[in-house]
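Inputs:
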Amino acid sequence: MAVETRVPDDDCEALTGWGRTAPTLARVYRPRSPAEVAAALRAPGARGAIARGLGRAHGDAARNAGGTVLDMTGLDRIRAVDARAGLVDCEAGVSLHRLMELLLPLGRFVPVVPATRYVTVGGAIAGDVHGGNQHTAGSFGRHVVSLELLTPDGEVRTVRPGTPLFDATTGGLGLTGVILSAVLRLPAVETSLMRVDTERARDLDDLLGRLAGGDHRYAYSTARIDLLARGAATGRAVLTRGDHAPYDALPRRHPARRAPLAFRPVRLPAPPPYVPGGLLGGASAGLFHALWHRASPRAAAGRFRPLSGFFHPLDAVPHWNRLYGPGGAVPYRFVLPYGREEVLRGIVRRIAGRRFVPPAVLQRFGPGGPGPLSFALPGWSLALDLPAGLPGLGALLDALDEEVAEAGGRVQPVGDARVRPEVLAAMYPRLDEFRALRAALDPRSVLVSDLSRRLGL
Amino acid sequence: MKDALGAPQSLLVLGGTSAIGLATARRMIARRTRTVHLAGRPSPALDASAASLRALGAEVRTVAFDALDPGSHEERLGAVFAAGDVDVVLLAFGVPGDQARDESDPVAAARVAGTNYTGAVSAGLVCAGALQAQGHGSLVVLSSTAAERARRADFIYGSSKAGLDVFAQGLGDALYGTGVHVMVVRPGFVRSRATAGRPEEPFATTPEEVAASIERGLRRRSETVWVPGALRMVTAAVRHVPRPLYRRLPV
């Protein structure tokens, strides 16, 4: 045991998730090829290894205190694109941003777009992320044709849908193996614009009604709830729903007619490294919410918006998580089955009026994947980020966990930073199946993350 | 692992019968903590403390630990870390001593210093090394407001805590950026068994309040915590009082 304090060497880095809470130290290794990943897994050290992509997971899924973290962004080759069949074969470290840049000119798009395009393909599979099209397209894993998985025994397996290993790997948080590459199925698009309908809902009941009534007409649908509104306005929201605009739908003089597939996202300067906490609390947050709510049109149909503005407006600001302040933010993402709307109402009421930014995102979910850790189920999903410094936050979220579990809902493992292990087990009854598969695949416990330690996965 | 809000799953209390240590353990068990190691000299009191925490549903183990025997620290505490990750180490042992008697009994005075300072330095370094090896964790060091400025009434105790305080601050800076977090807690007069019968001072607090402040400090990753919080300003003022005047103050 090292008694003297030692200066960590250059490879060591204190890592956090996107929420910037509870950093832990790991040796970060950036492999350049599958062979280097395999070499790293052969000698993982006493505290194991885990793959990490672009660090967009909010909590501790891609950290490994005292162990090795494999920064997979070095594996960024796109091996083949078949624009006609709509298939791409790429390595795991390729980001969705890169895929969009490459595929849009070919008239193809990524199948599922989470709240940021700066996630890697490997991370999107391991987290089985979803986007605004969950109700029509499911989560990311559904669009994987096959993937290459380096299992802890050093073998590279080609894993296809329908096998237990594939089901456990999609949403498996990188704990079944290191994803090296994947073949993805890509939807066709005619333009890089979205045709968007925007509506305002005056309260939660109005919102649920509007979402349930019209969602089937749109490929993408999300609602942003202004959780600072209280009283009769509790749950007031702006619904943003849309589809990829077909070329013929563009007006005759529209500038996009000349370059329909251009992809030029806006890039703003990053906030300074230190942003004081509380900047987004209290009055400023209230003002932001009120302005944002009122600036949205009461009802607007058929407006054309660029992809980046529709899917990930926050991506325009690099390191926007610095705006959380030094305390960081805690994510809370859960889904409640249909028929338990009263629980959703109760939860929204309990958190309404506390201070936080950005607004919560509510959407309707369709069926989830077949994996034991698949998050989605048909129901209502709510996602929000809360400042970690909020007094009484831990107890509040623990109480909400109980309500969600009681109602047959779940919290999202990859978007979690604090759920109790026993509550997670209640939400995911097939957790033991996942543990058994891991015990068989990884008897030496090579793949370990802070999340797997915390939740005993 | 600690969660995003700093709530630990496992806790090591050095000074397993300390009122603040136990109050903190009870608070943590109510949140997340499942494993508690109570380190202290084997005694019925230590076993009773363990039993009281076990009744709350935690898995409690006792560790034979003597602050005055630094030679044994690495072996004893090393065994705790070898058994699994420790998310928070609470360095809570210390003896108040008896100022009036200790002034005429240098051996007893040295024992106060040996427990509160030398023993804590040794145990603190062992724990810091182990936390660094696991890449995460917090070391919470219980100092005292008595460490801020010498007081006629308890300068033997105060000097030992002052040494510990400076040691912990330096350790915190040495470990900055390593994922290990060192937090110095400076409570005022704490009403507990150890201080029973002593005249109460202003800004007195209770073990439960100290525990609540520790929990909050862990969430915020604070480096210094005062209990109650107003003491930060009060001691800042007291620190600048000229000595001829300070000597006459009833502190």
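The domain at 193-425 of chain A is CATH 3.40.462 (Vanillyl-alcohol Oxidase; Chain A, domain 3). Flag for discussion at group meeting.
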